[in-house]
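I am hoping you can look over what I have pasted underneath with an eye to the fold:
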Amino acid sequence: MWGQLKFNETPAGKLAPGMIERGEAGAISCGYRVDEWEITDKKSGAVVAPEDAHWSDADDPIFTGVRWTLLEASLVCVAADQLASVRSLLDDNKEIVKAAIARATARQRMHEREQARPIGRK
């Protein structure tokens, strides 16, 4: 997920960009509410309507939040999600933006594969 930070015109808000530049704070902590879920049958890959969902204990459906509401965002030193970080993107340079998105996507896929790996396997 991508977003744009805008700091308040307060003393703390004016200090935040310098903290990011110096590496003192560079992670984001977010609170959100999922407003809409998409349910996918892991075996077939088909999206299933919630009212038609019937799974046994052996099934493993995938729930993906497809619409959500941001409730709060905080600039922190260490985030619970190690992938939630601040990056600078230049609006006038589309190649930099594309490269940043490609790197973030690759990191996310690597993280997801690592999380899916059974314990004890390398």
